[in-house]
Design a protein that fits this description.
- The protein is 77% helix and 0% strand.
- By secondary structure, it is mostly helical.
- Among the domains are: 122 residues, Alpha Horseshoe (Serine Threonine Protein Phosphatase 5, Tetratricopeptide repeat); 89 residues, Tetratricopeptide repeat domain (Serine Threonine Protein Phosphatase 5, Tetratricopeptide repeat, Alpha Horseshoe), CATH 1.25.40.
- It starts with a helix and ends in a 24-residue tail after the last helix.
- The relative contact order is 0.08.
């Protein structure tokens, strides 16, 4: 039951996934009541964490956070405060706090997760994920030197445990590149992004969403160069990323909308207003449908369309998560 719900969530069917997780949780609660036991505490925690992820995908971040906090409580009560599975709930709660722009609280949650995983797992790929998440929280606080050190530690573990040619290793290279970009070192950032792309092409192939992320990040760096050749290449990469996401996710998906938005933004900067409007309109329509009208990414598309038409925007400034940033890796 939980596996199907998670599959639906990964496919971008967030509302259906939410309903499935809620149904699973109700069934587990009913079983416990009928048996006068708490035998399903861990599955209930898993169901709450899954429901929280679906709610976060739908932009219901406070509700998502509440589910992850309740999942953590269940794990502590049933398994004890040192059980390593608690780290998964901490990581998910941290991600919700991060999206709510509460990075200091996210940092505290991530540090709890890292402590648990370091104690239980030491140099394990799951520990690398905790380093990655903590580094993100520091990144959003502009503590770039600290974030860089943590991403480099995650890279060390991944190279040792998974090898150079592994998708998670590529993620670490990508994340180091994102920090270098934030520090203004675009040359080093490009080196890291290109290394991530090289590994992704070799391990997951040309037509994978991870490869689309690399295309997007390299395109954004090329946009900063500003010359005609770089902008033409950036346009090609954004189009390639969009094509991958359309094939993999379909048109009605948040990742596809992100590529439509990025492509529309660049076309607008190049003066191709009608083509820009079409992509920004598609991004907005998809985000309203998939994420809801008040999600930060929906507001970003609404603002971009208003600016294209020369209208003053009432939307807030760009949410940090719209910028190139270290990637979120799935806690487990």
């Amino acid at each position: 039951m939980l596996e199907l719900a998670e599959q639906l969530r990964r496919e971008g069917q967030f509302a259906e996934a939410r309903a499935r997780f809620e149904h699973a949780l109700d069934a587990l609660l009913a079983f416990d009541r009928a048996s006068a036991a708490q035998a399903t505490a861990r599955p209930r925690a898993d169901a709450r964490d899954g429901l929280g992820r679906a709610l976060a995908n739908l932009g219901e971040l406070e509700a998502a956070l509440a589910q992850h906090e309740r999942a953590r409580e269940l794990r502590v009560a049933s398994l004890g405060p040192r059980d390593v599975s608690i780290a998964a709930s901490d990581l998910l709660a941290g991600a919700a706090l991060e999206a709510l722009q509460r990075p200091r609280e996210a940092e505290a949650a991530y540090r709890r997760a890292l402590t648990l995983r370091m104690r239980a797992l030491a140099d394990h790929p799951d520990t690398a994920r905790a380093y990655n998440s903590l580094a993100r929280a520091l990144y959003y606080q502009h503590r770039f030197d600290e974030a860089l050190a943590l991403h480099q530690e995650a890279l060390r573990i991944r190279r040792a445990q998974l090898g150079e040619q592994h998708p998670d290793t590529a993620t670490s290279y990508n994340n180091i590149g994102a920090v270098y970009r934030a520090m203004g070192d675009n040359e080093r950032a490009l080196e890291q992004f290109e290394r991530a792309l090289e590994i992704r092409r070799a391990t997951v192939g040309e037509q994978h969403p991870y490869t689309a992320i690399s295309y997007n990040n390299i395109a954004e760096l090329l946009e900063l160069e500003g010359d005609e050749l770089a902008l033409t290449r950036a346009l090609e990469l954004h189009r390639a990323a969009l094509a991958i996401r359309e094939r993999f996710f379909g048109e009605q998906h948040a990742e596809t909308a992100r590529s439509d938005h990025n492509l529309g933004r660049l076309l607008a900067a190049l003066g191709q207003r009608e083509a820009a409007r079409e992509h920004l309109r598609r991004a907005l329509e998809t985000r309203v449908t998939v994420l809801g009208p008040d999600h930060p990414e929906t507001r970003s598309s609404r603002r971009a369309l208003a600016e294209l038409d020369g209208e003053p925007s009432r939307e807030p400034t760009l949410d940090p998560q719209e910028l190139t940033a270290p990637e979120v890796t799935s806690p487990r």
